[in-house]
Design goal:
With about 280 residues, the protein is an alpha/beta fold. It has one domain: Divalent-metal-dependent TIM barrel enzymes (TIM Barrel), CATH 3.20.20. The protein has helices at about 15-25, 45-60, 80-100, 115-130, 155-165, 180-185, 190-205, 240-245, 265-280, and strands spanning about 5, 30, 65, 105, 140-145, 170-175, 210-215, 215-220, 230, 255-260. The strands form two sheets. The protein has an eight-stranded parallel β-sheet. It has a two-stranded antiparallel ribbon with strand order 8-9. Helix 3 crosses helix 4 (about 115-130) and helix 4 (about 115-130) packs across helix 5 (about 155-165). The radius of gyration is 18 Å and the shape is globular. About 45% of the residues are buried. Bound molecules: zinc ion (2 copies). One zinc ion binds next to loops.
């Protein structure tokens, strides 16, 4: 069964995410374990974790993904920011293990005006340091980014360069975001553009490293560098391209998580319904 879900709110407690996901008919899900635009992280309570584990097992919601904070930058020229970011990644992995969550999704960082190659090396050093700090059941997934200024992971080869140079055990693979790939210049509207993406995943990473697709339409054009998600079929990517992605044998059985705009649950219901129809 193809796993399909959305990014879910944890308002009121992490365990509250599960009935929300089930209400929408999700079979997988993602959430933020805390405010993604703040540095404050607290461990989750024992009861909350136990309830979460029990409920998701009962309802076969799997795999589950935590998306890390947008403030994290493991490639910054600012040492203090790198240290704070590394600490936050460790805390997210700890939270994932206490909840039994399989994967922690990470935007590695930005060069912030510095040389991208040097920035990638800083990210590699930082991740190597994290790998030396402990062992977690949960694995990190590096996500491709949209090619905004200073991005160091918008090309698949760049993501692979980081993974290849970090000791094994910490990183479980990658999450490919369709909006980001499109914005970064993989023209997923065309068969050639989709072929470039799948070929590069195959060549630089190997398909087995692809653990998640963030299925999002895009507000910006191919190559725009714009990280703005749009409702399924209502953006520049469009319904035909999304159907081609969802039905591509290369992506068969890879879990799909939508991060489409959400004013109310109706938005999720509508986007999920569109994807279910396309997948048939
Ligand atoms: Zn992301
Ligand atoms: Zn994403």
């Amino acid at each position: 069964m193809r796993r399909l879900g959305v990014h879910i709110s944890i308002a009121g407690g992490i365990e509250k995410s599960i009935p929300r996901a089930l209400e929408l008919g999700c079979t997988t899900m993602q959430f933020f374990s805390h405010n993604p635009r703040g540095w404050a992280v607290s461990g989750r309570g024992k009861d909350e974790c136990a309830t979460f584990r029990k409920l998701r097992k009962e309802h076969d919601l799997t795999p589950v993904f935590i998306h890390t904070s947008y403030l994290i930058n493991l490639a910054s020229p600012d040492r203090r920011l790198i240290e704070k970011s590394a600490q936050m990644v460790v805390e997210e992995l700890n939270i994932a293990d206490s909840l039994g969550v399989e994967y922690v999704v990470l935007h590695t960082g930005s060069a912030s005006g510095d040389d991208p190659g040097d920035a990638r090396n800083r990210a590699i050093d930082c991740l190597t340091g994290i790998a030396g700090k402990g062992r977690w059941k949960a694995g990190l997934l590096l996500e491709n980014t949209a090619g905004e200024r200073g991005d160091i992971t918008s090309r698949i080869a760049e993501v692979a360069e980081i993974i290849d140079n970090v000791p094994e055990g910490l990183i479980s693979g990658v999450c490919v975001d369709t909006c980001h790939a499109f914005a970064a210049g993989y023209d997923l509207k065309t068969a050639a553009g989709r072929g470039t993406l799948t070929d590069e995943i195959d060549r630089y990473l190997g398909r087995a490293q692809l653990k998640l697709i963030h299925l999002n339409d895009a507000k910006g054009d191919a190559g725009s560098g714009l990280d703005r998600h749009e409702h399924i079929g209502e953006g520049k990517l469009g319904i035909k391209a999304i159907k081609a992605i969802v039905t591509d044998p290369f992506f068969e059985d890879i879990p799909l998580v939508l991060e489409t705009p959400k004013k109310s649950d109706d938005d999720d219901i509508r986007n999920l319904e569109r994807v279910r129809k396309l997948a048939k």
